[in-house]
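FW: tagging you since you asked about this chain on Friday. Here's the raw sequence from the shared folder, copied in full. Didn't touch anything.
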Amino acid sequence: MTRTGLKLATALAALALLSGCVVDPTMQAGSSNAPAKEVAPEDPPPPPQLQFAANYIAKQDGTFAVPQVPVEKVPVNMLRQEVDFPNTEAPGTIIIHPGEKSLHYILNNRRAIRYGIAVGRDGFGWAGEAIVSSRKPWPTWTPPKEMIARDPKLEKWKDGQPGGPTNPLGARALYLTTNGRDYGYRIHGTPDWWSIGRSASSGCFRMINQDVMDLYERVPDGAKVIVLNNDGSRANGLKLPPPQPVKAKATPKPKAQPAVTPDTGAAAPIPTAATGPMSTPAPSVAPAVTPSVTATPAVTAPAVPTPSTGTTTTASPTVAVPAAPAPAAPAATTPTPVVVQPVAPAVTVPAAPAPAPVVIQPAPAAPAPTCAVPLVNGICPQG
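HL: got it, structure written out here
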């Protein structure tokens, strides 16, 4: 074999060896017509909340049933769990961080149990120190007067709402006081588990019922409670929220009053009792003329002394009639007839007739004497 042929044979042999590394589809296991085996997908990992589900199962507590909490709907950092918590406080102390919506119960070895909470809504938060003065299971809730003023629907509970599953304080309550004074703040349960992690209360700290029941068993009376500022800093003394404004009650609309027509007429004069002969009030411009009376011209008599008759005429009772308003004085100097409003006829008392004047006739003058001697019985003796 020539050298060229040898090289060709060697190349063919190498090609054959290389072809042996190629997988023939027809040589695979099974037939090419058989479906390929599917690989089952891996199960998704369980939600992290499920590892805490045992803490929130339904339970019976005396005569009340505590329902199960759907932990998958609660943020995992709001569920009860033991965590590292470096601090310098004594075990048994409660530290509340409103900004993080968390409550830590201090354990030994720089560890703590963390609970999720709801805190006061805007304007209702506070900070400072307090103590747990008392604890109560299934407490009665009595809304303060300020809360009733803000929400009048709570008036029905002014004497207290008995404890139970629908009570706003939930299954347990820890009552807080500062320097012996109760400001109305509590650490308590709630039937509204979905409010945990929010700013939703009037200053109290809400917990899931199963969590507050757990804390209730750990905390003794007199335990120290530290409420931090929202930024996590320590408060300098007690910082209370300002008083909240009270909703003003709606002012009822005034009822419509009937229109009053002003009286433009002149007020009638008040009648007065007559003490003498009746006289009709006269206008200031011209004397009123009564239609039923005819004026008689006055007679001027000689100035002769008139003997007094000694008789007094007593006026009969009269009826006083209000006079019509006096008309305005006319500008002309000539008297204008005055229109007199019709009035009821008055009783006219005739005046006693005045005695006729006595005219003294002068005695006739005596005739001139014609007797030369004195008269005797008026007769001249010489006749």
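FW: The helical segments are 3-19, 145-150, 209-218.
HL: agreed, and The radius of gyration is 63 Å.
FW: great, closing this out.
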